[in-house]
Amino acid sequence: MKFNKWFLFLIPIIAILAYFSIPTAKPVEETGADVLKIRRDKDSALQDDEESPIKDKATFKGLKYYSFNKDYIVDFVLEKAEKAKTVELKMTDGTTEKLILFGKIKGEIGGFSLSLTLYQHDNGEFFLPFKDKTAPTETYGGGRFLDLPLTNVKNNRLRVDFNLAYNPYCAYNEDFACPIPPAENTLPIRIEAGEKRFN
Known about the structure:
By secondary structure, this protein is an alpha+beta fold. It has helices at residues 10-21, 32-48; strands spanning 73-90, 96-109, 112-120, 126-130, 144-148, 153-154, 157-161.
């Protein structure tokens, strides 16, 4: 049986991001220490939570990540679609997941111009699935995800911190299904930030 619980561990991560953003109401910009805390909290959840997708918790020693790199914190220009609409993203098990299509974000990383499709969850938080040239050798071959709080928006720009890029549940356990990033979110560059392959 397949499960579409690819988002369950986002709740503590979003809560942490909200904590850092409340005092100033400015776009969140994590430091290396902030990101390290988020990663440790996720490892603890994967180790202890009864709904963790990790099969062998006894030998689980934590996830692997790239080192924090502030160069992968990028302010993208927001281009909202003329009309928000619900779309269906394909899942790894052949089903679909409904998300809100927000529009596009455009910016540069390392001199490369990028344009990515941006989605929203029902709670309004942004969702950015992507795949880059580090897959499948260094990162999960199915791509990685980012969940971005609304507080990351300022002056029509969305701050995207790729240091927080994470793997979906299906990267840890084939019994879970997860969204497949759309073709237009396949990047022609390496994003050496965030979570690496599980094994």
